[in-house]
Design a protein that fits this description.
By secondary structure, the protein is of the alpha/beta class. The protein has one domain: Protocatechuate 4,5-dioxygenase, Chain B (3-Layer(aba) Sandwich), CATH 3.40.830. The protein has 4 helices and 7 strands. The strands form 2 sheets. The chain has a 4-stranded mixed sheet, covered by helices on one side. A 3-stranded mixed sheet has the order 1-4-5, with no helix packed on it. Helix 2 packs across helix 4. It is globular, with a radius of gyration of 16 Å. The two termini are about 25 Å apart. The relative contact order is 0.24.
Length: about 170
């Protein structure tokens, strides 16, 4: 299953060239952004295992997100990134996107099917529910907003993702 980039062109630039230009500006800005491009030192043992990133439109929160992703990627480009996002609409469970890919203007990101399987096998409260990411819930933007930053920082490496939505009872 492919999750379309439903917010491309509104919450962030919708074409590859425009998005690349925006990302370069966010990362290279010395006043609000980190002031440099993401690069990896390829350190085997990571000290940074996660981060918090805002999920507003890129023009409002992109500088802050650039700081987060610069730090997540500076030691080593991860193989997989688990993305937790809240649900702004009525949904009570914890849902995981089981299989497929998520579209971005910079290229698609594949879901890490093996890790999703491990999580489902060991997480009794997590449901495999792709419907929590499509249709009515496709308007949920918070996971999608993270993807251009991941693609930009990963450069040519095929980083996988595990999208998880946290409902009201999570």
């Amino acid at each position: 299953m492919q999750r379309k980039a439903t917010h491309a062109g509104t919450w962030y630039p919708g074409t590859e060239n425009a998005l690349l230009k925006e990302m370069k500006q966010l990362f290279n800005d010395n006043k609000f952004g980190p002031g440099k491009e993401p690069s990896s030192q390829n350190i085997e043992k990571r000290s940074i295992l996660g981060g918090l990133s805002p999920h507003a439109g890129v023009r409002y929160s992109g500088y802050c997100a650039a700081h987060t992703y610069l730090n997540l990627f500076k030691e080593k480009i991860p193989d997989t990134i688990i993305i937790l996002g809240n649900i702004h609409r009525r949904y009570n469970d914890i849902a995981i996107f089981k299989s497929g890919e998520w579209e971005t203007p910079l290229g698609n990101l594949m879901v890490d099917d093996d890790l999703v399987g491990t999580i489902l096998d060991n997480g009794e409260i997590i449901k495999s529910d792709n419907l929590a990411f499509t249709g009515f819930y496709e308007e949920e933007h918070n996971i999608e907003i993270q993807l251009p930053f991941i693609k930009y920082c990963a450069k040519d490496k095929d980083v996988k993702i595990v999208p998880i939505k946290l409902g009201f009872n999570a």
